[in-house]
Amino acid sequence: MNWKRLYALVQSICIVWGAAIGAGILWAMILTGLCRFAFKLDEKPAMLFIFCPVCIVLAAYWIRKLPARLRKAGMLSDDPSRFGPWFKG
What's this model's pTM, rounded to 2 decimal places? Predict the structure, then answer.
């Protein structure tokens, strides 16, 4: 494995997993807050039975869906000429 491929792998893992976990946490917090308000739940059961499962499911969903969308947006690159200024020339 050369440095360009290693860079692409690390870039993909960090950006995709970070964005997926962040999006999963954000939407799970919003849903948990709405459920706590609507059903008058305490904090511990809401976090255990709503936040954790929703966060895991949403993170898995985003890990599956984000790479294509991030490539289209230009945040992920597979072409070595587009890896960044470190590998030009």
Answer: 0.74
